[in-house]
Design goal:
It is a single chain. The chain is mostly helical and about 140 residues long. The chain has one domain. Helices cover about 55% and strands about 0% of the residues. It has six helices and no strands. Helix 2 crosses helix 3. The protein is globular and about 45 Å long.
Length: about 140
């Protein structure tokens, strides 16, 4: 990212310390990738992308970048739900780093998807075809 973007992120983080600066970099990268993907599939698409489209792009980008660590990385950055991405987007909008339309609002990011369903469950052993591990039995300690 360019230095002026980094300065803006540092200023945002001083006002709102909920999210790590890397979360802002990630979001902008995910936005860029999402816009390119949409324009590849729909060459005549030059409108503003919706919150849902961005959330879908974030999900795909996170899984590509971090795989089974996405949930952990997001938690380290202070991101625990799709609403947090909305907060990051609107922090960038308020700092003049992203644009928005009249119809865009934080509610666009509410209940986008469950982080556990998207970033944890697909990587659990039973989801990968292996039998689920039983944890209800205690192992006997050897003397």
């Amino acid at each position: 990212m360019n230095p002026s973007f980094q300065e803006a992120v540092l200023a945002i983080c001083q006002k709102d310390a909920r999210y790590h600066p890397d979360a802002y970099d990630f979001l902008v990268e995910a936005l860029d990738v999402t816009v390119k993907e949409i324009r590849t599939r729909q060459p005549d698409h030059d409108r503003h992308i919706s919150g849902k489209e961005l959330l879908d792009g974030i999900k795909e980008f996170a899984l590509d970048e971090f795989g089974p660590l996405a949930f952990t990385v997001f938690a380290e950055w202070g991101i625990h739900s799709t609403e947090d991405f909305g907060e990051i987007v609107f922090n960038l909008v308020e700092a003049g780093r992203l644009g928005k339309t009249e119809s865009d609002n934080r509610a666009d990011f509410k209940d986008g998807y469950c982080f556990a369903d998207v970033f944890v469950k697909p990587f659990e052993p039973h989801a990968l075809g292996a039998p689920a591990r039983r944890t209800s039995r205690r192992r006997k300690r050897e003397p």
